[in-house]
């Protein structure tokens, strides 16, 4: 195994630690009174954190000149998608038990669900087209398509903000980080 492959594997492994901790908590019956809600919130927050870290790679590279960060952007993005998929699947399977009518109603009637669904739907084409083959096939259109990450991050922050309703302290921090990351792109 090459040094680069080992580093990528290590990055994926580190990125999956929160999921492993969540599984350990589940097996240890340590998820509180509402385990489904706890899993939903934990996976959603990790998806958002990793998505913001993904968006931070380019500005950090520009600021520090450390180009060795570049390969980790895809790793972080795929980890963000993994947690977003776990978040979405928990909501779909454990909250709604695949009741498609209730799911569709939820998406259209509850604004925070609409924002969350928008974030997840925006991540799907990014994950699908993250391979070298897709990058080659799409050419310069790949970079254009991957600007959906800004929409995904914005929708995810809005989703979290609208979800908590009263104490928006944490969502405000995520919104501030996102604002800085988006501003850094405008300043380029």
Output mean pLDDT: 93
Main pleated-sheet profile? none
Q: Domain count, please report it.
A: 1
Unreliably modeled segments: none
* Count of β-strands: 0
Give the helix tally: 10
Q: SSE order in H/E notation?
A: HHHHHHHHHH
In terms of DSSP E residues, the strand content is under 5%
Radius of gyration: 17 Å
> What does the overall shape look like?
globular
Structural class: mainly alpha
Oligomerization status of the protein chains: single chain
Approximate helicity band: over 70%
In short:
The protein is mainly alpha-helical and 188 residues long. It has one domain (3-187). Helices cover 84% and strands 0% of the residues.
Could you characterize the architecture of this molecule?
- With 188 residues, this protein is mostly helical.
- The chain has one domain (3-187).
- The chain has 10 helices and no strands.
- Helix 6 packs antiparallel against helix 9 (148-164).
- The N and C termini lie far apart (37 Å).
- The model has no long low-confidence stretch (mean pLDDT 93).
